[in-house]
TrEMBL record:
Top-rank lineage group of the source organism: Eukaryota
Name used for this protein in its record: Stealth protein CR3 conserved region 3 domain-containing protein
Family the entry assigns: Belongs to the stealth family.
Keywords: Membrane, Transferase, Transmembrane, Transmembrane helix
Gene Ontology terms for molecular function: UDP-N-acetylglucosamine-lysosomal-enzyme N-acetylglucosaminephosphotransferase activity
GO CC annotation terms, alphabetical: Golgi apparatus
Residue span, Stealth protein CR2 conserved region domain: 224-305
Residue span, Stealth protein CR3 conserved region domain: 355-408
Amino acid sequence: MQAGSPDYIPLAQAPFTQPRAAGRASAATMYCLRRRLVLWSLFGTSLLTLFVYMKHSFNYIDVELDDLDIDLFPPQATSSLQTESYLPFQVVSRPNDTAHLPLRPVPPLPSTCLDAYFARGDACYASQPAKLDLLWTWVNGSDPLEQQAKTNVAAKFDSQDPWRPSMQPNQARLYRDHDELRHSLRSILANFRSHIGSFLLLTSDFPIPETTPNLTLPGAWRLGQIPQWLDLSKQTRSGWRDSDVALKILHHAEIFQPYEDTIFNSLAIESQLGHVPGISDHFIYMNDDLYFGQPTSSATFYSSAYGIVLHLQADLMVGPGRPNPRTQGEWRGMGESNYMLSARFGQRHRPYVYHEAKVVSVAILNELETVWPEAFARSASHPFRETMGPGAPSDINTMLLHAHYIVERAREALLWSWVVARIGPTDDLWGENQARRAWEELGGVWEGTEGERAIEVVSGRRNTLEKERIEYTLVKSGIKDGLGKTSYVFTSLDGYAYATLGTGGGHFPSFLPDEQERALPKCTINYARCFAGHSRASDVFKHIAFDNYRCGDCVISALVRASGPLGIAAFLPPPDRMLSSLAGKVPTPADVHDVPHLPLVDKWEDGDFSLREVMGTAGERNVRTWTIQLLQRYRYVMGSTPAVFERLQTAKQTAAMLSHLERFEDAVLMCINDDVITGEQEVARMFRQFQEKHWGHPAAWEKR
């Protein structure tokens, strides 16, 4: 959030010309805004008339008039009225229905090693490591147009509407600026440069202020916000550059589907991140209070060899119940999101997602919006996060949904692979032969009555996460700095991460070879509780996966142990199992190129998980190949990276906190949050000094 007068650039895809350097802005106030609107009324008509005239008169000349600089204030205006140049541009309209688009594939592993990767635990990775884009969400809260837009949007709400904005006194923290954004970007350049694809800054836009009663512009014309320190004279066709790193500016109007007006709700903005055009398949999501404190490996976030890296707090759990009127702050969005996850995957507590840099999969964001289109649309329609409410249902927390959806889809795929694709027949019937085979594969003895059958499962030791193996694989895959200071503590190739957490949390299970026997997780599979009473393979699957999920957790533990120290062979269908095409069914292009996935339903009861329904009826397919592609889509590891979360509160507390950070030299991921209570000026001075000490080297796109 940038103090002082704002800069603006146009938003639209228009031909580019090099903009001239803009003058320095001075402090803007609401009084300035009112004066500005008066000046608009005086100069707007002649200004825009001239603009339109020039555009149409010179359209045959090789001059790109869409990018003319227009100063809104005359030369004789006082310095307090001077501002940076900006232009109105029309936003390109986009289709609103994203729920029915085909699923986006994830970056595939080479087919030559994919089977061995899952069956035997062999290494498998792409030919070169992927570059990761970084996306910041940011607004200049002190911008007078931002403040005016907030006033205008708030005025549309009835006095009793629970979604009207809150008037709490701590709102000032949303508008303070300590130059965090500039130093956040610098910290990435200093500690992550070799892994960067590009930088993207997503920020606000506003309607063009009214000029005269007889001049009307369509509502699609907007003004786009940019940081005041960004040097407009250094813009190129691709944005701005610092050597090999590009910085691009994007605005809310360019990603919201649909877009009504200026948005002030971070949860709404996050719900639309899947619409960011041209971003890398996996990107790092940042806020302006997040920094990299030390050199950081891309394996902290993603590698083709191990998949996406999630950072979750296993000892802090979010319950499955829907938020009530007493639920406060961020727990409302998290509670609503886990309520949705529980309806889809089973009622359970799930870990808190750390407030630090997060890796995000565009393909998974796309899939989330396909499963819950109404929830995403509802959250995107709410312009304010901190409301008088509580409104119901609460806004969703997209980042929590994203992390847990990957974990739950991986678990679901493991169980479906074993029950339906490995043991269940094509007609989905589940009889005594299938039941006996399943029980014996888990290590049980079939003799005796249903009530007597039980298996005591002790998890097996695994080699998947031996540090030497991981480091060797990462370096061979092209990530020369290996893990860096990150550790991998759990992987989807070793089962289900939450099986041991219960309701109170704890730690993710460990199966390393040096783990003591008494520390290995244990569980019991009871036949009558887990398998009895079902006549279809898909119903057995739904029962152990969702209805009685502890059965499924223990089944996974037993099959991971049966698979040996590496791989998940015990889950996989045989290599030669084929699903034939139904008579008269001809495969369409959609059938051939369809991304393997299980039902895209928001409640597990509504899904048909039978083999034929899931894999389709047209075209012969190899069941094992299809299943392995399904498992590949949701690969993940749980990461542990040295991190700090600190707050700015008072001058004394800030001094002590910054002193602590100076001594904590291993901190890689840093969050320093503005919660200043007293001593704002002194806190600001100390914090700016700290940032300059650690990230004082300016980027090439900054004003000098």
